[in-house]
Amino acid sequence: MTEAEAKAMSYIPKSAANAVLRAVKSADNNSNRPINELRLRMNGCMSVTSLGENIPVDYTCTKDDLAYTVDKLCKSSLYSRAEDIKNGVIPADMGIRAGVCGRAVVEDGRVSCVRDITSVAIRIPHRVPGAADLVLPLCEKYSGVLIYSRPAGGKTTVLRELIPLLSKKYRLAVIDTRFELCGDGNHCGMADVFSGYPRYAGMTSAVRTMSPEFILCDEISTPDDLEAVRYAHSSGVRIAATAHADNLESLLRNESLRELIKSGVFGCLYGLCGFKKEPIITKSEEIHD
Amino acid sequence: MTEKLIGGLAVILSSAIWGNLRGADERKKLAALEEFISLVNFIDGNIEHFKTPLCEIYRQFAESASDKRRLSAEMKDFIAIAERDGIAAAWKRDILDLPDEAKPTALKFVTEVGRGYADDEAELCRYTVESLGSTLDKLKEEVAGRVKMWRTLPPLFASSVVLIFL
Hints:
A: 7-stranded mixed sheet, 34% helix, B: 85% helix
């Protein structure tokens, strides 16, 4: 078990952790099988994701189990993570992040807070040496690379592996909005890390203050994010970013992203198609109306 | 006769010392309660203004105490454990010698603190401070009387016993 896996296990009740270990063991005799995700659902079956496979765990989570897990993730200070919970993700130690959902309290059409958390998905980061080997030359060749895949498709892993490789050669700024790219910071080498910054604020601040040659940013989606990418590009900074999309067509269905790609900000698109499948590399000039 | 007198005096003296110690115990419990209230106030302020995580608040409380006020050894131990394992774990160690009347409110506080959003926490802190504050006021009057009683009653009782035997 890796350190991050052990840490993730410490967030859930002991009885649940034992059930997870039993489930992983019974699914496969490979004791070194990595655990990528733990899912707890109130009054529902727990599950664990390993190597892309969802394995049910013979354990039913109670309200107390979820309260225990959330309490541990928030270091017994729920109020200090109110904003993160509202955004749906609690960043924890070692780059672990926990997606949460429950009963939303809505004010003026916006979620003001989430009460009675009913599901927690603890995602455990894994170093995958070599995961960024194909992207690195693209990053060096093009002014921008956009990595896309469906959720949990490995975008963040690729970006995480890019950090040590790029920071060796370039002045690199990492916009780590959700504390998931740098984690404990051991692999970040000479990168300047903007931890917890909203993407727009992080990118503009990086360009103005740290004079980077490269910016890495995870999950760009909002108009603000795209505006920041455009600003960084027009300032002469190269960019590697990620976006959610199942395939190229669905990526291009996002009008703002399509404009950004066509305007040449991202010279190359790098699509991850799932576990152990070859990525799809598309040059932006190949994209026509 | 001299031996009896010396023995009698020793009994009276030791009962006076015992009474004084009991009185000091009562006052110590009050001081512990005052310290606990100041901790709750400190937590309240930090949550309201800075949303600081609890472990950080405990450390700051211990640090700020060295400048303005001195913490008792028990409170220092309590804070050290709270910072490491959480305030509920520290409470379970039974380090703080609070008056019995204050224990249910304090227990409610240590069990619930950190489990809600800022508004809930502020509410909890204010309720705890108010409740413990009124307990403290009530106890201050009672303790003054009880300390007086511990100081006078044991030596008086011992003197009467000594007189009977003499």
